[in-house]
Design goal:
Shape: globular
Number of strands: 13
Strand order of the largest sheet: 2-8-7-6-5-3-4
Structural class: alpha/beta
CATH architecture of the largest domain: 3-Layer(aba) Sandwich
Number of helices: 14
Oligomer: single chain
Bound molecules: 4'-deoxy-4'-aminopyridoxal-5'-phosphate, glutamic acid
Order of helices and strands: HHEHHEHEHEHEHEHEEHHHEEHEEEH
Length: about 400
């Protein structure tokens, strides 16, 4: 008996999550591993956020809440979007979920169906194409290169468009590329989307992590057309080191938000009650821990980029956001999986093969780990590359 649907059979598990678990397990067994696979900050959740969640438990705030989040948190998100992102929405347009991952999936399930195409600039965060497939749609990757700093140009976007195109996904700052789109670049992409009335899913989860003179610009703030077409996704995992808490949100046009509200009410119901109280503390409380983390990440970024750029045959464009460096390994003559496997078995360094992100020429290194690990891991990485 074949119990599985075709949809379930074609799904692949999240390689980023499994590589990270593998590296953590090897470390726990006492292995000498330098893990550059992490997709999460290595900083602790700020104390005032933990205290707010603990106080909520103590106070018995442990029951179901409205499915799309408690009004106070939705209001805090509305205020944050207005103050920081230039996005004006009503609370009814905000849906809080179990992580930005669920917010992305909610947005896709509510708007994408059989036959719909979704344009995804590659290298992409690996869950986007799978989510589109879960919804019955067709992911359409658009390959970018270092020449455009791994960013999709308006021409590439236009060329990928067909009568079936329903959505484009923009992720700035980007995972795995670390690319940050400028206001002008976003304006040009919005113009292409607006011409054909294409929805824009804008994943801005790394917004707080931008470096040098890069600025984060929210797609929905660009103009009236962008506001009408954009679903903005954000969350607490990266900015507040809250990956395990599972808290994220989206802001969408009213009818889309309403559909997502219904969808979520039948899937997961509300995100954890006391975690939502932690979310309010994160948004309304002291932002200094975010600035401190960004500063530390920036030091590591500069160090890692400099070291990698000095390795012969490796190509690295400087990432201006998130906490990843994407290294082009194509001159070593190995597939990204082969490269990553050998690197782990020979010198104990874990990276994510670019094939997971739709680009076999690259591997991703995360610098969300201590400077001592970065130094040791890069010594080994360099030696490994030089011997290939
Ligand atoms: N979007 C991007 C680009 C990501 O890298 C991640 C992974 N952490 C997420 C969304 C999901 O984040 P979370 O579900 O932890 O909020
Ligand atoms: N998004 C992070 C990463 O790319 C965490 C893992 C995941 O959710 O896929 O590594």
């Amino acid at each position: 008996m074949d119990f599985l649907t075709d949809r379930a059979k074609t799904l692949t598990p999240s390689l980023t999550l499994s590589i990270d678990s593998r590296a953590k397990a090897l470390l726990a067994e006492g292995g000498d591993i330098c893990g550059f696979g992490a997709g999460e900050p290595d900083f602790d959740t700020p104390e005032h956020i933990k205290a707010a969640a603990m106080a909520a438990i103590e106070a018995g705030f442990t029951k179901y809440t409205p499915s799309s989040g408690i009004p106070e948190l939705r209001q805090a998100i509305v205020d944050k979007l207005a103050a920081e992102n230039g996005i004006q929405v009503e609370t009814a347009q905000v849906i809080v979920s179990n992580g930005a991952k669920q917010s992305c999936l909610n947005a896709i399930l509510a708007t994408i169906g059989e036959g719909d195409e979704v344009i995804i600039p590659a290298p992409y965060w690996l869950s986007y194409p799978e989510m589109v497939r879960i919804a019955g749609g067709t992911p359409v990757p658009v390959n970018t290169t270092e020449e455009s700093n791994w960013k999709m140009t308006p021409e590439q976007f236009s060329d990928a468009m067909t009568p079936r195109t329903k959505m484009v996904i923009i992720n700035t700052p980007g995972n795995p590329t670390g690319s940050v789109y400028s206001k002008e670049e976003l304006e040009a992409l919005v113009a292409v989307a607006a011409e054909e009335d294409i929805l824009i899913l804008s994943d801005e989860i790394y917004e707080k992590l931008v470096y040098n003179d890069a600025n984060h610009v929210s797609v929905a703030s660009i103009n009236e057309e962008a506001r009408r077409l954009t679903i903005t996704v954000n969350g607490f995992s990266k900015a507040y080191s809250m990956t395990g808490w599972r808290l994220g949100y989206l802001a969408a046009p009213t009818e889309v938000a309403k559909a997502i509200d219904s969808l979520q009410s039948h899937m997961t119901s509300n995100p954890c009650s006391f975690v939502q109280k932690g979310g309010i503390a994160a948004l309304r409380g002291d932002q200094q821990p975010v600035a401190d983390m960004r500063e530390e990440l920036n030091l590591r970024r500069q160090y890692m980029v400099k070291r990698l750029q000095n390795i012969p045959r490796l190509r690295v464009v400087e990432p201006l956001g998130a906490f990843y460096v994407l290294a082009n390994i194509s001159q070593f003559g190995l597939s990204s999986t082969n490269f990553a496997d050998k690197l782990l078995s020979k010198v104990g360094v874990a990276v994510v093969p670019g094939i997971a992100f739709g680009d076999d020429r690259t591997v991703r290194l995360s610098y969300a780990t201590g400077m001592d690990v970065i130094k040791k891991g890069l010594d080994r990485f360099e030696e490994f590359c030089c011997q290939l």
